[in-house]
Automatic annotation (TrEMBL):
Pathway: Pyrimidine metabolism; UMP biosynthesis via de novo pathway; (S)-dihydroorotate from bicarbonate: step 2/3
Protein's gene: pyrB
The keyword Transferase appears for this protein: yes
Annotated L-aspartate binding sites: 82, 165, 219
Name assigned to this protein: Aspartate carbamoyltransferase
Biological source species: Nocardiopsis dassonvillei (strain ATCC 23218 / DSM 43111 / CIP 107115 / JCM 7437 / KCTC 9190 / NBRC 14626 / NCTC 10488 / NRRL B-5397 / IMRU 509) (Actinomadura dassonvillei)
Length: 302
């Protein structure tokens, strides 16, 4: 494995290796000295063309815990905003000798293009509405640690599927790992190509909830919406929001997930967001261990 561009590229064994490695590295997080010397002398560049405090910080922390040198390259105030192309930036990183490049970009496919131009490993931290593989991996890791398995789990992914890279990465990964995924959304928030995805589709949240082990609520990405996809916020919440009453219809062991940031009161009520069955803060903590695992496997050499 040289790059991590899409969860669709991972075999079941590769995905399981990443999760198992993350489980081992998670124990380091419990020690008083959280650093390992594994990637000493390696350089990881965070190349973010889109803002994302959570993902960037998580990758940075993961790299630093493995003793790598981290360079944060925010495209906002750099030569990129002066019109430098992705290829020129790639050549600059190449000249600096970056061992790993973590990229987030608003164009789908940007990570794969970058992988053709640099010798180091490329980690896709979100490209357009395409993929976000480490988010799906940390989600799978969280499900496995909470529920003990992935094989046969019934996972409902609810909300703005159309603009979600998290949804696509999760469908591909979870299917590879033996879970069954159902997407739940209004027809206007589903991609045209959804019939080619290896999952089921439903428009009725109340019908899906009682038979779901995991319900993953997605943020409604208002900033990517240039026209009206649903009548009103209230209408959306009424049909696709998760509140305490809906939570009570889920199986007792079932968990609620959210990639964050949550829009409380829209896709998820405060009561559910703060409930012990909601794994949002765990997902963030697991994200560091998972990203450590990916960096270790891609850059660790041995």
């Amino acid at each position: 494995m040289r790059h991590l561009l899409s969860t669709g590229d991972l075999s079941r064994d590769e995905a399981t290796l990443i999760l198992d490695t993350a489980a081992e590295l998670a124990q380091v997080g419990d020690r008083s000295v959280k650093k390992l010397p594994t990637l000493r002398g390696r350089t990881v560049v965070n190349l973010f063309y889109e803002d994302s405090t959570r993902t960037r910080t998580s990758f940075e922390l993961a790299a630093k815990r493995l003793s790598a040198d981290v360079i944060n390259f925010s495209a906002k105030g750099s030569s990129v905003s002066k019109g430098e192309s992705l290829k020129d930036t790639a050549l600059t990183l190449q000249a600096m000798g970056a061992d790993g490049v973590v990229i987030r970009h608003s164009a789908s496919g940007a990570a794969r293009r970058l992988a053709n131009w640099v010798d180091g490993s490329v980690l896709n931290a979100g490209d357009g509405t395409h993929e976000h593989p480490t988010q799906a991996l940390l989600d799978a890791f969280t499900m496995r640690s909470r529920l003990g398995r992935l094989e046969g789990l019934r996972v409902a992914v609810v909300g703005d599927i159309l603009h979600s890279r998290v949804a696509r990465s999760n469908v591909l990964l979870l299917t590879t790992l033996g879970a069954h995924v159902t997407l739940v959304a209004p027809p206007t928030l589903l991609p045209v190509s959804v019939h080619t995805w290896p999952c089921e589709v439903s428009y009725d949240l109340d019908e899906v909830l009682p038979k779901s082990d995991v319900v993953m609520m997605l943020r409604v990405q208002a900033e990517r919406m240039h026209e009206s996809f649903f009548p009103s916020t209230r209408e959306y919440s009424r049909n696709y929001g998760l509140d305490g009453e809906r939570l009570s219809r889920m199986p007792e062991e079932a968990i609620v997930m959210h990639p964050g940031p949550m829009v409380r009161g829209m896709e998820i009520s405060a009561e559910v967001a703060d409930s012990p069955r909601c794994t949002v803060t765990e997902q963030v903590a697991n994200g560091v261990s998972l990203r450590m695992a990916v960096l270790y496997l891609l850059l660790g050499g041995s």
